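Re-run with default settings, no changes from the original entry. Doing this only to confirm the output is reproducible before filing.
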Amino acid sequence: MSLLVPDSGLLFWMVFIFGIVVFVLARFGFPVILKMVDERKAFIEDSLLMAEKARTELEKVKADSEVIIDNARKEHLRIINESNLLKEQLVKEAKVKAEQEAAKVIEEARVKIVSEKDAAMREIRREVAALSVDIAEKVLKSKLASGDEQEEMINKLLDEITISKS
């Protein structure tokens, strides 16, 4: 017998043992392996489906977030515009109020100046009248030193009063 050709007994036992191994594997090993392969395949398919679903949901969330961000930007611009309009309105109202207050203060100052001017004029007239009376008194005292001159002056004044009343 040669080295390359096995003996028929050896060949029989090799085929017999190989058959038993194939039978045991076919009966107990292959179903478990095939079951595990099928489970793995199902798990991978489920994972792919979940990944696709997650991707579509992520796209939907991205679209929703873009809409929300866009709405927030619009709301932000609207609020800024409203605040600018409110600011301008408040500035205008403050200007009008300040102008009214200034006009009121100016008018009060004018009234006060006029009243103070009138009071000063009355005071000056009083002083002038008092000075005039004092001067007239001194002039008359010096002119009317004698009784005859005083009588003549009184008669003259009485005549002027009676003429002016008639």
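The mean pLDDT is 89. Residues 8-143 form the longest helix (136 residues).
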